[in-house]
Fold this sequence. Notes:
The protein is mainly alpha-helical. The chain has helices at 2-40, 47-54, 58-64, 68-80, 82-89, 96-113, 115-127, 129-156, 165-184, 188-191, 197-207.
Amino acid sequence: MAQERREGKGGSRRAAARARRVERRTAQILDAAARVFARKGFHRATTREIAAEAGVSEGTLYNYFENKQALLIAMWERLAEIESLTRSLGTGDEPPDVFLREVLHQRFDLFRRNVNVIQAVLPELLSQAELRQAFLRRMIQVTKEALLPYIERQIALGRLRSVDPEKVTLILQAFFLGLMVMDLSGEPVITRGDPDLPDQLVEMLIHGLGTGGEAC
């Protein structure tokens, strides 16, 4: 019995070590892909160049990613930091204005840290139907699944009006994506780096644009 327990623990440690190696190698390849895409653009970049940049063989790269499109989607998922967004939702107890301010500050910082990569890959996501559908399935659905329970809980707590939570998640995603596109396009209101901008946007989003009085 004791020997079986030792063997079980040994197997668990080996599995954990293997998972860490896979995670490190995946990150290594994605980092290399980001550099190559930013330098050459998606179309001109090759898997051979990405493998060389990562310091691995092209065969090793294909053990992790089926093709260049799969690399692009995985890289975009990591850039979007969906796991970080999911963790930040926590138990759903954080008030919407606090949560949205944190998310917006995080998103703006994310865009600016990765602007060259995003500029290189975003046109491909928008112009290629297959990539666009993969993006919609993976990114938007995952974000929706992360946001939806939070929105539902905020409605249950009385912090948000009783509205369709699925529509709210779509509006928030459109809001974030729209800001990203405006940032990339050089809109000066976004790009000049006003530290109060996220707070101002959240104020308008949560409380609206009206004065609170009756309409004229």
